[in-house]
Amino acid sequence: MVNFHIMTLFPNMVLSGLHTSILGRAAERGYISIEAINIRDYTQDKHGKVDDYTYGGGAGMLMQAQPVYDAYQSIVERIGQDRKRRVIYVSPQGKTFHQEMAQELSGEEDLIFLCGHYEGIDERVIEEIVTDEISLGDYVLTGGELAAMVMVDAIARLVPGVLHNGESAVTESFGDGLLEYPQYSRPEIWHEKRVPEVLLSGDHAKVDAWRLEQSLLRTKERRPDLYEKYLELHPPVEKKKRRKREAAEG
User: What burial letters (b/e) apply to 183-222, b meaning 16+ CB within 10 Å?
Assistant: First the structure.
């Protein structure tokens, strides 16, 4: 089970998006838990402020360290000081999120996501509590909530039991380093387009071979970077033979 704790100024936004569909059912069945902690609840300002002007000047406001730290401490007190946890600051300056990272994080017990807003968060509290800075990509959002929700979705679906069919997380895109092959459902003919004959053959070996071929072709065309990486890890037969000959001669 993975427990997701999301520190945010907009808890309703997070919970309404994550407590639906597959993740909502998984939470009900106890495979994951998802909670949103409202950082504003921990401010000491009588007006409920959590931000202030930045030292040195500049545009925009900055989230203060104190309410963020106190919100974090409330989580630690509940789950236990000694329990292992990862604290992820959702930041465009972090490492780019990818499938291998989602797989790694799915093995953690407690994941705490810190969602920034305005011009960001006081650096001192980031240094104090954050273990990982992670970005969705080279672009900037108005807040970290959407990025955190994407990461939670990608991580949660890899937790055993979350998906009905355990094969789904293995065979889909990036599961083996390739993009997923094209898929088809009924009817057999739609808009004069036929389902490939091999998929109707009942020959599972041929179907598997066709799917691998399609995955390779699609990855080569759409993501040549992934294709080259896959070939390095899974060299073609001729390349393997050549390497063996070179090794024997050398």
Answer: eeeeeeeeeeeeeeeebeeeeeeebeebbeebbbebbbee
pLDDT tens figures, 128-185: 999 999 999 999 899 999 999 999 999 999 999 999 765 555 555 566 789 999 999 9
Asked if residue 232 lies in contact with residue 225, where contact means CB atoms within 8 angstroms, the answer is no
What pTM does this model have? 0.84
Q: Is the CB of residue 206 less than 8 Å from the CB of residue 131? A: no
Please enumerate in sequence order all residues whose Cβ is within 8 A of that of 117, keeping only pairs 6 or more positions apart, or say none. Answer: 9, 51, 63, 142, 143, 144
Sequence letter at residue 178:
L
In contact, 134 and 101? CB cutoff 8 Å: yes
Count the Cβ atoms, other than its own, within 10 Å of residue 101. 16
Ranges of residues in the chain with a pLDDT under 70 are: 165-175, 237-250
Phi, psi of 130 (to 5 degrees): -80, 135
- Spatial separation of the C-alpha atoms in residues 114 and 235, rounded to whole Å: 41
DSSP assignment letter at 107: T
What is the C-alpha to C-alpha distance for residues 115 and 168, in angstroms, rounded to an integer? 29
CA distance 171 to 90: 28
Predicted local confidence at residue 20, as pLDDT: 93
Q: Give the phi and the psi of residue 164 in degrees, each rounded to 5.
A: -60, -45
